[in-house]
Design goal:
By secondary structure, this protein is an all-alpha fold. Helix content is about 70%, strand content about 0%. The protein is built from ten helices and no strands. The chain has helices at about 20-70, 70-80, 90-105, 110-125, 130-170, 180, 195-220, 220-225, 230-255, 270-325.
């Protein structure tokens, strides 16, 4: 009896699995491929970081050179580059960037300056009081510059309001007046509204007052008090506080609602009040004055904090309006990130 042989299996396209030395070589090649793919991002990041660190010093030197020559905007651009991938004292890049922008005194750049200096102050949390005092001082100066700009704009609006009111009064009285004041475009399309101008004047003086109050509040942060200061620096701080208080008062007095106020009247004290003061004696009178002074100072500090909070809210509102209009942060450009740079002194 004969058996039929089994059919021959069809020829496939699969290659035979390597064995021995070939198998080891293939496994080693696969491991190297996965190792290269897995470590490539890390290697690239280290290369980029190395190149970045290598260029930090030259970029800082160029930024300082531009700052010293008075080209604050170009200096801010160089310092802004250093905020990216910087692990060496990153607060300095934000400090230099904010200081340069503030020195440019551009109205929109001041918002970026405040943001950078705020960031620098946060990053310098563990630095010495002297370094934090530098940031504190420049941040206060930036708010003061912003207040000066709003004050000047309010003064211009107040002058415009005075001309409009004078022209309207002359026209109503049948006297000659400057027609261009009431018809600036020469087509009779729109006459300035004194009430709107008066509200603009009041708003801008209020903005200035809040910014001066915020600057004064920042001056009161503890860093400069904890740092070692020369008598000259202490005198400068006291003069700055007095200057800010004077500017706040000027902005408040310049508001239309505070213009042309009558003389204050002194009320006559009652007999009971006089007897109370007389019976108190010198000691109680001194304590009463001290207590009153403490209450006034506490109330003043609360008002400063409230005004500072309102100023920051107003700043955020204006920044949001700018982003809605132009789709970018106000100032000189986008925020590259963290960085560092050479020190730039307070101006």
């Amino acid at each position: 009896m004969s058996w039929t042989p089994p059919p021959t299996p069809p020829t496939g396209h699969r290659k035979p699995r390597p064995t021995g030395v070939a198998a080891l070589r293939a496994a080693r090649l696969r491991r190297r491929t996965w190792w290269l793919v897995g470590t490539l991002p890390v290697v690239l990041a280290l290369v980029v970081l190395g190149v970045k660190l290598a260029f930090l010093a030259p970029i800082a030197a160029m930024g300082k050179d531009r700052y010293d020559t008075g080209d604050a905007e170009s200096a801010a651009d160089y310092y802004g580059i250093q905020r990216t991938l910087n692990i060496v004292e990153p607060w300095k890049a934000h400090y230099n960037h904010g200081t340069a922008l503030a020195r440019s005194e551009d109205s929109w750049a001041l918002y970026d300056a405040i943001t950078s200096l705020d960031r620098a102050y946060d990053l310098a949390e563990h630095e010495s009081p002297e370094e934090r005092c530098m940031i504190q001082t420049n941040l206060s100066l930036t708010y003061e510059i912003q207040g000066d700009g709003d004050m000047a704009y309010a003064d211009g609006k107040a002058a415009e309001l005075a001309l409009v009111e004078e022209a309207i009064a002359a026209r109503d009285a049948g006297l000659p007046y400057d027609e261009e004041v009431l018809d600036p475009y020469g087509d009779g399309s729109e006459e300035p509204d004194p009430e709107e101008l008066r509200q603009d004047v009041a708003d801008w003086y209020e903005y200035a007052e809040r910014e001066y109050a915020t600057a004064e509040q920042i001056r009161g942060w503890p860093d400069c008090g904890e740092s070692e200061q020369t008598p000259e620096q202490e005198e400068q701080d006291e003069a700055a506080l007095q200057r800010l208080q004077d500017k706040q008062q000027q902005a408040q007095d310049s508001q239309p609602e505070n213009q042309g106020g009558g003389d204050t009247q002194e009320g006559e004290g009652s007999e009971g009040d006089e007897q109370s003061e007389a019976s108190g004696g010198e000691g109680s009178e001194g304590e009463g004055q001290q207590s009153q002074a403490e209450r006034e100072e506490q109330q003043r500090q609360q008002e400063l904090e409230q005004q500072g909070s309102e100023a920051r809210d107003e700043q955020e509102r204006l920044e949001q309006e700018y982003r809605d209009l132009y789709g970018d942060q106000p100032g000189t450009g986008t925020d590259p990130g963290d960085g560092s740079g050479s020190g730039t002194k307070n101006w």
